[in-house]
Design a protein that fits this description.
Length: 426
Amino acid sequence: MNYCRFKLFSLAAVAATASLTLASCSNDEVEQINTGSEISFNSKVSRATVSDLSSLKEFYVYAQAEGSSTYFIENECATQTEKGSGIYKLGTNYYWPKGVQTVSFWAFGAAGLSDAQSGDKSPIQFNPTDKNISGVTIAESLTDAGKNQKDLVAAFVKSERPDGGAVPLTFKHAFSQIEIKARTGAKSVQRVYVKGVWLMNINSQGTMYFSPDGAVKWDIPSSSDVVSYGREFPIDQTEPEKVRAHMLPSVTGTNNENLITDNYSFMLLPQQLGAYNFTSRENGGSAYILFLCRIISEHKGELLEDFDNAMKDETNPNIHWHQLFPVNKEGNFKYGEYGYCCVPVDINWEPGKKYIYNIEFCGSTSGGGQYPPELPDGETFPGGDGVTIVPRPDGKEPGENVLDNPLSFSVTIEDWTEAPSDLPMH
């Protein structure tokens, strides 16, 4: 079977209407060609679709005339003629098959990264027999979130012979975009430092189908590899002895609350997963968000008593700090100690949608999360370079709260809309 393989590139945003001219030769015995105007395409734009073709360097095209079992355009790459021009050409022109009124077109491509950056991950295969894109794999990413992930765009149209015009194509995002934001509650006296955040137990493999209405649909096989995706944060070097990672802002604060967003947004396979169930582990879901973090609490007044888990503030004698999480065996306050906590989440991601997980630590009804599930023998949680990871204390079980309450969260669902044209490419 003949497959088309190409590398996907990251998509920042894609512009308006462009005329795409295809060129090559057709040697199909069934599909007689006429000598009229060559076949060309122009793009149509709507919300959650590609909106700026200037960053789409190339895409691939298949075309099949109604009633034919073969393609007269097969695995042809349309390449942008000039940067930002929106004009794409092959070698020699294709023409509408003689005596044929209706032709189906499949197009798919991506934008933004060079070959050197994209590597050999996530090979894409168009299956001419089943008319799908099979073998889509999004490799595990534990440190840089979606910084090096790729976006796939796809279009399908069953077009009548145009009367001197171009065949309309509507490119759509095939993946789901995921962001994670976190903050502490209003008027919280806790400070939360996050060393890493990961989406756990996510399906990484699937097959994309072109729907007759131009939409895209996904099939996730039961044999799909389940992996993790996330990001690690560096230690703030302004006070390296305090080993402070990314500090979460409060609800009323103005600090950046984004953990995974913008250039780090995930581009993952649309899928449905249940939240991890600590009570019925075998029959429950599998998905949860894992944090490697440190939680300390501000107390007013000087540190007069000898608390093991407390530390005076050398810069402000009117406050002192208590280490709430993690809890080491000695119960001491130790800079550089971090521990794992989690929040189970239900997942129902659709193509072309952006899902924003808004997590709250230490609010009026939220605490520090739950101790994460046990991992199978031989597996480990993502690491945290430069910090000391404190394991779950004796006597605590997975699912028990780290502090008084679990984490609270909400999910915002948006269309994957246009971005400014001056956004940097990943």
